Amino acid sequence: MKELQxxxxxxxxxxxxxxxxxxxxxxxxxRPVFVTSPEGADKLIFDTRCVHNLATFLSPRRSHVARLxxxxxxxxxxxxxxxxxxxxxxxxxxxxxxxxxxxxxxxQKDPASKEPLTAATVAxxxxxxxxxxxxxxDHVVGELPQAPPNDDARERFIEELSAMPASERWEFWQxxxxxxxxxxxxxxxxxxxTCERCIVDKTQPRWIEPSAHPAAIMAWQIxxxxxxxxxxxDCGECARVCPAGxxxxxxxxxxxxxxxxRFDYTATDDPEAPAPLGAFRTDDGQxxxx
Amino acid sequence: MARIGVFVCHCGxxxxxxxxxxxxxxxxxxxxxxxxSKDNKYTCSEPGQAIIREAIxxxxxxxxxxxxxxxxxxxxxxxxxxxxxxxxxFLCEIAxxxxxxxxxHEDRGEATAKAIDLVRLAVEKVKRNIPLETISxxxxxxxxxxxxxxAGIQAALDIADGGREVILVEKEPSIGGHMSQLSExxxxxxxxxxxxxxxxxEVAQHPRIRLMTYSEVESVxxxxxxxxxxxxxxxxxxxxxxxxxxxxxxxxxxxxxxSNEFDExxxxxxxxxxxxxxxVPNIPVIDQMKCLRILSQKKGKQDACGKCLDACAIGAIRFxxxxxxxxxKVGAIVVATGYSLYSIGxxxxxxxxxxxxxxxYGTIPDVIDGMQFExxxxxSGPTAGKILRPSDGKEPKRIVFLQCIGSRDRAKGIDYxxxxxxMYVAKHTMLYRHKVHDGQATVFYMDVRANGKGYDEFxxxxxxxxxxxxxxxxxxxxxxxxxxIKVVGFDTLAGEPVTIDADMVVLATAIRPRPGIKDLAQxxxxxxxxxxxxxxxHPKLRPVETNTAGxxxxxxxxxxxxxxxxxxxxxxxxxxxxxxxxxxxxxxxxTVARVDISHCAGCFTCxxxxxxxxxxxxxxxxxxxxxxxxxxxxxxxxxxGCGTCQATCPSxxxxxxxxxxxxxxxxxNAILA
Amino acid sequence: METNTPxxxxxxxxRMVAFVCNxxxxxxxxxxxxxxxxxxxxxxIVRLPxxxxxxxxxxxxxxxxxxxxxxxxxxxxxxxxxxSGNYHARRRFAVFHDLLQFLGFEEDxxxxxxxxxxxxxxxxxxxxxAVARVRALGPFRGYDREAVAGSELAGxxx
Lengths: 290, 673, 158
Known about the structure:
The complex is a heterotrimer. Chain A is of the alpha/beta class. Chain A has helices spanning 2-13, 63-66, 77-88, 153-163, 166-178, 185-189, 214-228, 237-241, 248-263; strands at residues 19-26, 29-35, 71-75, 97-102, 139-141. Chain A is built from 9 helices and 5 strands; from the N terminus they run H-E-E-H-E-H-E-E-H-H-H-H-H-H. In chain A, a hairpin with a 2-residue loop joins strand 1 and strand 2. Chain A is globular and about 60 Å long. In chain B, 27% of the residues lie in helices and 24% in strands. In chain B, helix 5 runs antiparallel to helix 18 (661-671). Chain B folds into 5 domains: 4-132, Rossmann fold; 143-228 and 326-338 and 521-580, FAD/NAD(P)-binding domain; 235-322, no CATH class; 341-512, 3-Layer(bba) Sandwich (FAD/NAD(P)-binding domain); 593-657, Alpha-Beta Plaits, CATH 3.30.70.20. Chains in contact: A-B, A-C, B-C. At the B-C interface, helix 4, helix 5, helix 17 and helix 18 of B face helix 1, strand 2, helix 2 and helix 3 of C.
């Protein structure tokens, strides 16, 4: 898309940024690209295969990206939510990045897919999207497409799970989690996993064992969900990259629902909005407390 | 290599009857790291303590566990014992095998097994304790008092008389507060100004009190013993160093129609003014919103007026004067900002509060509030002390007083009682009768709350000697009928509705915190309740302290309060300040949090959850001065040791000494071994 | 207290850990002791300064190590010795509780309560009630603990 490429070319040639992080066409579909020269801007694309959340490359853990210099990052409206959280948690400074927002009408589950966007192929996170025009951006490019096809499969699945008796639910999650090999792909791809030393890697004391035993896996999965509550931007990347196909995004969605119901909180691209687990109200619900 | 000593107490029969103490001691001997394990009948006794001291020396112990009563009883005792034997007192842990074991279980086997688990828990914890030293912080022995009403005045005088310097900051041009507006005070009917003004003068002349009027606190940084305060001295447009207070400028001022706040809008004042004749300091201020010259300057036009400039014989008027910011270092702060009154109009200071449409939202002439009545009754007021109707200046022969206007009314958003109204309404009826001998006062009340010294006798006097008629019930509405105000209410004791004709109605309005109190509270990191009243550290045991060390409360900023109680809290706060200043340095418990800077990712979620604002930012730089990262930093002088930061930190890069993750991990493992 | 080997039917006694705050619940438990209120002996208390310090990791570790049930208790909201520690804890626990519920964890194993320093009787009731509920559920087998106990996860040398 020309508007994006032209913008990237200008930002690079006039030295505003040293790298533009966007998407390119790769042998296995759309993939992230780091464009460091104005000529390279021609590689930049944006289409329905651009499911990845490029905000992850802004995480301070990725010092190799930081070494490329000041970055411009192409963000969909949902990706901007992750950027907002990174700003809120002082992991990046607003003046150190340039945000190129792209108007988006939904993306595929599969970045390799050349299929048209339908209810069957659309990513779960696109249902009910209200940020097709990113708010947190220095520039916004592209035409505003139609709204993505609605597929509330994830919501329906959560309802199904919630309706099961507790023991069946436990059985479902134990089975799903049993496939976890503790590869940490979910952790590596997540933009909000910015801890210099993850709790899993803390050895003194070892709260969470790194092995694939059921107890260790459960401690990991529960802690992951708990640590992400109120910080997750629901980009769904963790579920997409999980080699074991664990429905992590279902868990994330449920956490978001819990926060919405209890604390009236929805993930937002406003960096000033306070996170729910760093704040409180004196009248917060406590029906579960005796 | 750990060398732990375990001392299990029988506590006479209290523990020994249910727990097999010798077998607990024997079991403890086998715990990894334990080198000596004894049992004793009364471990807290002198011989018991001597045994511990001896064991520390003989076995070169690196930690001690006492299995006995609750730590709330004797933790301090045993820590002192350890210290006296040369062992750091924080290397001592208590296993509670009395309140939490022998006293609540009956089965000897169960209780003994539990006691063994609890001792194992304590041993595993103490092996991971590190020696801690109490934290010493220096103290700046100067106090800041915010607010110059009777509370601030009393606190300032007490601190200054105690030998310490005080800075008293007051936002109005004069000190005195609401008490200076009152005519006579209950229960003695003393003239308010007569008892107040000598105090005001004392403040002005006291060698250790620095008075900054027409000034406000701009910002507060730092912590107990070491506050950095920035104060904005607003521009009076008058040179206070040469002004003699002669008043010629006020006589000459052309702008004479400004609503007089001191008289609650019942009279007018000039643009250059002192709030009242006994003002301290007696230096006028120019109201920059009303002065014709300043208004013309703001519009960019030619300078208007300037009569005061001509009138001033010594040239003290300074139109070019600007606000001045001064910074001061103080060790303690007393907040004494007082109260304001609930508005009888439609506009309220908070969206949660609503007004009384039933009473005309203050649009009916001659419906006034209690403070306005005080001004009428006051000899220095707009009517020289005569009770006259604001509308036509006639003397009212019938006044109806309504109690609980706003107070105790959930529908209006105020559910508390304002404490002083029952008393001042009784006072008003008495002042009225003393001034208008044939005047009839009627009071609509829900209760009469007169519970201070001499208070009940006072209210009875109003009824029995000064003829006030007390009617139990509320007024449902008021309206004007010609010259008369019809007050429609209900007499619950007679069980029938009544309509009283009144020439004037006085509403006893609710006491509210001052508008803007929340901003000040946030600057000081102190908390307030849903109404805005400032929170004390503990409602019974610590009524003048806040949860922020070094910040104290005096007077009505904390809750509705009368003058005797206000003076009492002010003196209490002063005592706390003097107590703080009398220490050589501040000794703090060292069980505070510490940041692990190598792992902190600088997300500052801990900063946001700390109840005390004890966490700040710290830059980590390399040898060339390049910034590597910015991490969290805990101020050990402010941290109170709750540990919320650690539980919130996802990577556990901040640890609470005495309750570290390692210790708790070891305790959990020990219990379930 | 036996370890997590299967017990003869009808003799299962739950092993429970309680994480409590020092100022309210710990003192309330002291009061229960001073008042000689008899209660179930299955609970071992770990003392924390504030519920704000209580981490879901503690609860997970206790369950992993062999606890059949956990109690978490502190000051009533508004009464926290550190003003707002328990408000933060309340939100944290609410999210944790709802998360566990969604995963199908047996809710009766985890008890949250507010017990003040003057509520000795309430502490006794909380303890007795929690123990009874966990006893009815039986031992916690949720993690297939035999595998855990046999691995290097079991215990840590002093």
